[in-house]
Amino acid sequence: MPAIPSCIIDPIWDQFSELLPEKKVEHPLGCHNPRIPDRVVFDKLVQVLVFGCAYERIADESCSATTLRRRRDEWIASGVMGRLQQIVLDAYDWMIGLDLSDVAVDCCITKAPCGGEKAGKSPVDRGKGGIKRSMVVDAKGIPLGAIAAPANRHDSPLLEETLDTMEIVGELPEHISVHLETADTTRSSPASVFGSWG
What we know:
Elements: H1 6-19, H2 38-51, H3 55-58, H4 65-77, H5 80-95, E1 102-111, E2 120-121, E3 129-137, E4 143-150, H6 159-164, E5 177-180, H7 182-185, H8 190-194
Parallel strand pairs: 1-5
Antiparallel strand pairs: 1-3, 2-3, 3-4
Helix pairs in contact: 1-5, 2-4
């Protein structure tokens, strides 16, 4: 059973595949393992997003967790993932409609046992490595943008940067309400929250 019905995911793949740069992999000795097809990696990354599990849980003999991470990073660096996000949001807005009259911003902390550029000491996990994700969603809970930061960063300094990710949806309504958790507002004045985009 696929993570998403083929009637939904196939058109997305068709648009996504058009964005992918042509990749020629040639080894002078011809003895390297063949490149895993982009469609296989795409389907597995969709499974990771839908099921919310680690790459290791999705990896199998057709594609390793390392390949998933490498290809993901390759696609992010080339701008393909950002373009896909734009396509998906535009399609959703056209078919269903984003509700931008109310948006909500909140953070969560996840483990980062292998460290990484954004990892920091987690205040909720005895100082082990962790990442804080700050996300903004529309009134129906549709993700509009997110940023990552070390787990020990306070929520409030991330607010402005998180709201800036809403540039992807274009022009915002004249009147918009931003709903925050109490911790998000303790160190931010209204001017700092709305100054750059409100």
